[in-house]
Automatic annotation (TrEMBL):
Residues 1-21 are annotated as: Disordered. Gene3D superfamilies: Vaccinia Virus protein VP39 (3.40.50.150). This is Phosphatidylethanolamine/phosphatidyl-N-methylethanolamine N-methyltransferase. Residues 60-133 form the Methyltransferase type domain. Keywords: Methyltransferase, Transferase. InterPro entries: Methyltransf_11 (IPR013216), SAM-dependent_MTases_sf (IPR029063), Thiol_S-MT (IPR052356). It comes from Candidatus Hakubella thermalkaliphila. It comes from the Bacteria. One of its GO terms (biological process) is methylation. The lineage of its organism: Bacteria, Bacillati, Actinomycetota, Actinomycetota incertae sedis, Candidatus Hakubellales.
Amino acid sequence: MNRERSSSQREISEVETRKTRSRYDRISPVYDLFESLAERSKISSWRRLLFQQVEGPTMLEVGVGTGKNFPYYPPGLEVTAIDLSEGMLSRARKKLANYPSARINLRIMDVQKLDLEEGSFDTAVATFVFCSVSLGLSGNYTLYRY
């Protein structure tokens, strides 16, 4: 029974992941526009506070999206930034051109199937991600390994 449930849960998770990827690929061209009011009112100050807490020279950002956090990265930080959606990463690549000295490696990757060496980052950050991930908040515990 446990084996069946586990297999069934994996299948549901994979279906949900495909739906999430497709949704973000579709909305990526207008994502920043839709988020702009919230960004100006509260979120930008929250991002600033968050990134003041970053320690160490290396950081993993999960769910980099369109690169909204780029302006808040501390100088000299080496970042691996992942996202499930190629559409969102495409937008992030365009923004990256505005930060020529930034050391940001953008990769397409599912947080539920991280292909990274454990313990390879000093800090891991995820902003507004786990509401869109099948595994939900349990993904936070996964990040502790990195």
